[in-house]
Amino acid sequence: MTTLLLATTNAGKLREIRDVLAGLDLEVRALSDIPAVAEPEETGRTFEENARAKALYYAGASGLLTVAEDSGLEIDALDGAPGVYSARFGGERAPAYAEKFALLYRMLAERGAPESPARFACALALARPGGVLFEARGTIEGRITSPPRGTGGFGYDPIFFYPPFGCTLAEVPADRKSSVSHRGQAFRQLRTFLERERRR
Q1: Under a CB-based contact definition with an 8 Å cutoff, are residues 31 and 7 in contact?
Q2: DSSP string for residues in 143-195
Q3: Is a pLDDT exceeding 90 seen at residue 11?
Q4: Is 19 a catalytic residue?
Q5: Most CB atoms within 10 A, among 46, 71, 170, 175?
């Protein structure tokens, strides 16, 4: 059985990814399942660059087949911000999401676009030590809504309104969110790749 390392410590992301990959002939491990490795700096200018760098870094450090992803919220009225800085938005001390929401609302009010179009984007990379084997990207389009709504999901889900559902992504069950989410899209592509490789 192949071991696959999921290079994230985010519990919400781990749940979503494990659900999408469930049933594959894989031993799925998280970073908490291997000896501690220092986190790499995320210096890429795109989600793809960060995902690729993390996958190669953790594959090299662990010797395992590794998948890493980078994802975030892009708001049109803020020229794509917070983008690759989504997790660090509001400062390096990583304020609570309620503080991030308040800051975004203030910035959007200043731009006169409180319900700006926005999207979630996710890029993933699958790597072995020394090389990237597969990359994928997923996006979901919506808009910002105020006030935050819903208690499901995580991160920016409570302020991301998805018109086809008529609600935020924090207001739907996890399986329904995953059926359309940026991360679900990207990891379903990975699942297809892994299934195809196994049949070869």
Answers
A1: yes
A2: EE-SS---SSS-TTGGGEEETTTTEEGGGS-HHHHHHHSHHHHHHHHHHHHHH
A3: no
A4: no
A5: 71
pLDDT of the residue at 94: 65
Do residues 94 and 87 touch, judged by C-beta distance below 8 A?
A: yes
Q: Look at residue 41 and tell me whether its pLDDT is greater than 90.
A: no
- Kind of pairing between the strands at 65-75 and 2-6: parallel
pLDDT of 159 above 70? yes
Query: CA 110, CA 108: separation in Å to the nearest integer?
Result: 5
Query: Which structural domains are found in the chain, ordered by start?
Result: 2-199 (3.90.950.10)
Q: Which of 19, 33, 70, 157 is catalytic?
A: 70
Q: What is the pLDDT of residue 116?
A: 98
Q: Kindly give, in sequence order, each residue whose CB lies less than 8 Å from that of residue 76, ignoring residues fewer than 6 positions away.
A: 113, 116, 117, 118
Closest CA to 170 of 122, 101, 107, 123: 101
Please compute the mean of the pLDDT values over residues 193-199 and round it to a whole number: 87
Please give the angle made by the CA atoms of 98, 187 and 176, to the nearest 5 degrees. 60
